[in-house]
Write a structure and sequence with these properties.
single chain; alpha+beta; four-stranded mixed β-sheet; 46% helix; globular
């Protein structure tokens, strides 16, 4: 939904630039668990420095690119809308949703 609303930054380099900009626009980063160790460290370090929440997701970079309709591998996604970030956070950490309760 965030992608359709235009509230995402897709790709490691674009997310890194968005995090380091004068007015950071990224509220949350979703990073692939299966990205290279160097990429995971770069994403993690940048998120820690700028105090941005980062969540690892089980999809591989090729699976993420397919889901997002991109042709090249996607290792991370930045969420640029605070409301979407809050909703995703609730979804990612809510144990009730894992059991099927809504």
């Amino acid at each position: 939904m965030a992608r359709k609303a235009g509230r995402t930054v897709i790709g490691t380099e674009l997310v890194m630039k968005a995090l380091a900009s004068k007015n950071p626009t990224v509220w949350m980063v979703l990073a692939s668990d299966k990205a290279s160790d160097n990429t995971k460290k770069r994403i993690s370090d940048r998120c820690l420095y700028y105090k941005i929440e980062r969540y690892n997701i089980p999809q591989s970079p090729s699976e993420l690119s397919h889901l997002l309709g991109k042709t090249s591998a996607v290792c991370c996604i930045g969420i640029t809308d605070q409301g979407f970030a809050r909703g995703l956070k609730r979804y990612l950490i809510n144990d009730d949703l894992k059991e099927g309760n809504e």
